[in-house]
Specification:
mainly alpha, homodimer, Na+/H+ antiporter like fold, disordered C terminus
């Protein structure tokens, strides 16, 4: 832990500067820049130098960063294309939720953990962090491949499923399972996502030109886009899904309407804020937890399970699409990022997870995130794009 | 005070949405959008609706917003042009510091306040908040007028002078005046500002092309600009001047080097973050303080003094430049914004200022800020730009 908090400009300099420095080194080594930025977080964080620890301000910048990241990805894809792959994506998401859950649960039971702790670790393995995959695919210009579209759609569905699992697991931990409440949560989240994906673009295409023609302030189109972004992110939270799902759906709804200026201005925000999201992931890594051998072994087992079960589970869901696509999709669904951490944190605050197991889950989340862009680079090896940064 | 803190996306929606809504209404009424955004802050803040209160996250976004605002303004002006008006600007800044200080001190003494409190209120009237003026001039495309250049240069010098006054006043309040330390602070701050203004552009023009040719990551030029922005802001804080002075000097240093892409991406960040700075000013207004008549009278007296003394003081400094320029410059130096609040806050934490007088200073800071864009609109009335938002 750092001895003191830095003033804002110093913290910005350390976080942003180190992200771009290590990112540039990774690019020179023909490795994905975003992996470099996560590594930068691990270096300046408690694990190595201890200059920066997670705090409220960095958390806010990171949350804002991942919202804009998903918004930007949404802007780049068409809702129609995503809906076309909806069936496959649902299958990919569902099987990709079931397999990791039971694998995580089984490993913890075999390790001797109590029932509730095992269930929580299983739940933490469920939800894919769409941010990392989306960022890697977007940076390589691959968002329009069918496999990418399935990954994006599946990751969104996955988040809804993860929410249902989390609701079920939490009520299981408190001892009173309220089926009606879980069903209500599930219904609300599903309705929100489906309605926006299906009719969001049409609604925006009808309503927005009206606003644009009336607004007189400069850059009004960008302001209206941001208001929609914040509104849907907030609404998403109230329906229970992650704010970033709302951000993605906002981008999706605007994808046919937003002009080049809106995209450029969004890009500016992303260039500033996304490093805070990536560094934030690295900051959470705390290797000091692995001083006992048994924890280290558990961590490696859980990490292996996290990778293999998504590969197999999501791959199975996409079985009909040919070997190449199966591998791409399976790998794209591997990163757990912040979603797994949130589940583990909830378990920690409910005192059903030990700090040791919490550390293991965080390690799994960071490690799957680090490894995914590298896996994707191999899976999507496109000769033309070989030298482009991921 | 709000009963609870909103989740991030909801807070963003309320702050950003209300800023843009009230801003748009002001534009429709042919009033400056930025005044609307400050008013939005007063409406959603503790004064009226009480939805949002200042907190750490909003403070960070606001600080980042004003840094980017000054950075953007710096990008738009040339250091050479600012240095040309350096003599006049120094005179404007100096007389514009002396007159308000003694006026504030005299009013408080006449009101019956103790010596230290009067000195602190005098000090809080000293420094111009360059953010508001710069934003108003920039939005109207007036940054290249001679009067604007003098205002910008004087506001920067003013900040250095304000720092010296603050150092002197603080040591006066603690009872042991350390002349050597004050001189050291003054020297360091002056050296930092002068060196960067004089040689910053040349240094950047020499060094940056070297970096640009080597960097391979996408948007590397923007990343390098941001690193310079954060580095100079941090350095400014350590030499004692405000971070925003460093941000301005960073923009100034880059003003010949930055291409259209860097400016567009910076604009995107500004469009998102500057409203948080403006709303943040409005949030600080708390009208409930003025229930006693004597406080209300004091507040109006201080407000009048704040406006008149800068008009006269800065006008005197620019006396040789013709009546029109004298009025423009005097009005441009009126807003105190966050700088006055910081002095008052320090007085409050040192227990030499009462909460009542603190409220008066905050009121003065917000009110001068609200009134300046309106004054500037009149002073800079340029027929061609008549309908452009300020």
């Amino acid at each position: 832990m750092p001895a003191h908090e830095f003033p804002l400009p110093v913290a910005l300099l350390i976080v942003f500067g180190s992200a771009k420095l290590v990112g540039e080194i990774f690019v020179k080594l023909r490795q994905p820049a975003l992996v470099g930025e996560i590594v930068a977080g691990a270096i300046i964080g408690p694990s190595v130098l201890g200059w920066i620890a997670p705090n409220d301000t960095l958390k806010a910048l990171s949350d804002l960063g991942v919202m804009f990241l998903l918004f930007d990805v949404g802007l780049q894809v068409k809702a129609r294309e995503l809906l076309k792959v909806g069936g496959t994506a649902t299958l990919v998401a569902t099987v990709g939720v079931i397999v990791p859950f039971f694998a995580g649960w089984a490993i913890l039971r075999a390790w001797g953990a109590p029932q509730t702790e095992a269930v929580f670790v299983g739940a933490s393995l469920v939800a894919t962090s769409v941010g990392i995959t989306a960022s890697a695919l977007s940076a390589r210009g691959l968002l329009h491949e069918v496999a990418s579209q399935i990954i994006l759609a599946a990751a969104v569905i996955d988040d809804v499923l993860g929410l249902i699992v989390l609701a079920a697991v939490s009520s299981f931990a408190t001892g009173h399972v309220n089926v009606l409440e879980i069903a209500l949560t599930a219904g609300l989240a599903t309705a929100f996502t489906v309605i926006l994906a299906k009719w969001g673009t049409t609604a925006v295409n009808h309503v927005l030109p009206h606003f644009h023609s009336k607004a007189e302030a400069e850059e009004a189109q960008f302001h209206i886009s941001l208001v929609l972004l914040f509104a849907l992110s907030a609404l998403a939270m109230y329906t229970g899904v992650a704010a970033i799902v709302g951000a993605f759906l906002a981008g999706l709804a605007l994808s046919e309407n937003a002009d080049a200026r809106v995209r450029d201005l969004t890009r500016g925000v992303n260039e500033l804020l996304v490093p805070f999201f990536l560094v934030g992931i690295g900051l959470h890594l705390d290797l000091s937890l692995f001083r006992t051998r048994s924890t280290l072994i558990l961590a490696l087992l859980i990490l292996a399970a996290a990778i293999v079960t998504k590969l197999i589970g999501c791959g199975l869901g996409a079985a009909g699409m040919g070997w190449t696509n199966v591998v791409k999709i399976g790998m794209g669904m591997v990163p757990r990022g912040e979603v797994g951490m949130v589940v583990a944190q909830m378990g920690l605050s409910m005192a059903v997870i030990s700090t040791e197991v919490y550390g293991v889950v965080v390690f799994m989340a960071v490690a799957t995130t680090l490894v995914t862009p590298l896996l994707l680079k191999v899976a999507f090896r496109a000769p033309v794009l070989e030298n482009v940064e991921v």
